[in-house]
Amino acid sequence: MSFAKWIGGAIGWSFGGPIGAIIGVALGSFIDNLSDNGTPLLGERQTGRGRNRDPYRQRPKQTRRDQRPQTQSGDFEVSLLILASIIIKADGKQDQRELDFVRQQFRNMYGADRANHAFELFKRISKQNISMRQVCLQIKQMMDHASRLQLLHFLFGIAKADGHVAEIEIKQIYTMSGYLGISRKDYESIKAMFYDMTNNAYKILEVDKTASDDAVKSAYRKMAKKYHPDRVGHLGKEHQEGAEEKFRQVQEAYEHIQNERGFK
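^ that's the sequence the OP posted. Answer follows.
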């Protein structure tokens, strides 16, 4: 699959707004090279140059005004690349281990060919000065809650990939979570999956250590439902597999509390 076909076919709502502007700048030099080589530009028909509709691009599904359009895998992918570029630069440098983590995760999810295309875009995105607030607000408006939680989970993985978590990275992710419309409890739950803190298992389940056994059981059922891989099934199998990690950690947290308290 060509780079132009990949970017055109993968993206729905993210082709507009501030994210679309970032993509446009990132693709500028690449498209110029395609044009110089005689390759049709993204959005041009094979019969000539112009601003005709891209034949590969799929329009997002029509929805009522109070509904979000369907988030495609490509929307998630591009949103992830942009937010990852912010986190990786948060401590003033791009650590190779963080870059390798992002690349490997993309290879695991999408395969080598698509991961290579994603990094062609990522290298161009990372050179831009990006408004985190504007990007996150677009994602909040357009992307469902379960997918936003999956974004946050991936970003924490990036921050920890180099073995050292800079305070500025944590602050950036916390700020992002607010702009993304993710609650403080959800933020702390996902953070606890990556960092050793007091009462981690309780934080993952979003309950206090003083909670009753019944409250813990109720919290587990709630969190298992919230983090179930089927909640991101619309993004494709590759993201369901990624969501299984959150789901597994919820189960492990519950089992830890069960063993600690001695209830079934």
